[in-house]
Design brief:
26% of the residues lie in helices and 30% in strands. It is of the alpha/beta class and 237 residues long. The strands form two sheets. Strands 3-2-4-5-1-10-11-14 form an eight-stranded mixed sheet, with helices on both faces. It has a six-stranded mixed sheet with strand order 7-6-8-9-12-13.
Length: 237
């Protein structure tokens, strides 16, 4: 079973007192003490971000590790990543992250991990990366479209309610025909895909929503609100 969980915002970095989204990710691998590897390249491998990951996922009963491509590049990145139960990608600059991954050959390794059933998850840039296209502010002063890995079809936009420029940018890109139809996630909302198809939308906050967006034949842009499953620490998958 191939799984991707794309978070618009949230998780340990944005909701340290509310682990509902991270707990949901952990449950999907079906392991009591899962091995979770953090990829923090989008943040320039921020030390504080990485330490917060270790603290959060240790508390959640995992065996956390991280893969650095800066200070101590691994001799066997493939071996490290394919030994995991979950690969969790942090937020930051989508373009810089993907460029670095390409230089180190990570896209093919991540695709192999996906095919093997290792759960792929991430927030913001770490959610954009799995789709064919993402709405990102990493390449221009205002959010714009960029090509991503294409593990999932269509497009994705994080922080849909958390950053004022995201919604109008996605609408504009659709109207201009520059981006494919796709999904947007509020902060605190996540899309869970199984074998390339949307399984469900989940949320750690009552007001968080997921959205489906497309353009009709007349050029009109449409937005459909998707009611999520509201998570608690006792929610089962």
């Amino acid at each position: 079973m191939r799984q991707i969980i794309a978070m618009g915002g949230g998780g340990f970095s944005m909701e340290p007192e509310n682990p509902a989204l991270d707990e949901y990710v952990i449950r999907q691998c079906g392991k009591a003490t899962p091995k979770v590897c953090f990829l923090a390249q989008a943040s320039g491998e921020s030390l504080e971000y990485t330490l917060n990951f270790y603290r959060a996922f240790s508390r959640l009963g995992c065996r956390p590790t991280h893969l650095s491509l800066f200070a101590a590049p691994p001799e066997d990145a493939r071996g490290v990543l394919l030994a995991q139960d979950i690969i969790y990608v942090g937020g930051g600059n989508t373009k810089s992250m993907l460029a670095l991954w390409e230089a180190w050959g990570l896209p093919s390794i991540l695709r192999e991990a996906y095919a093997r059933g290792i759960v792929l998850a991430g927030v913001s840039a770490g959610a954009n990366c799995w789709f064919e296209q993402g709405v990102t502010d990493s390449i221009a002063p205002q959010p714009d479209v960029m090509a991503c890995l294409g593990f999932l079809p269509g497009s994705f936009c994080p922080h849909y309610d958390g950053e004022a420029t995201r919604r109008p940018a996605f609408h504009r890109l659709l109207a201009e025909g520059r981006i494919q139809p796709g999904y947007a996630a509020d902060d605190g909302a996540a899309f869970h895909f199984i074998d390339g198809a949307l399984h469900q939308v989940v949320a750690s906050r009552p007001a968080a929503r997921g959205w489906r967006l497309w353009k009709d034949e007349q050029g009109g842009v449409h937005e459909e609100e998707m009611q999520p499953v509201l998570l608690t620490q006792s929610t089962t998958a």
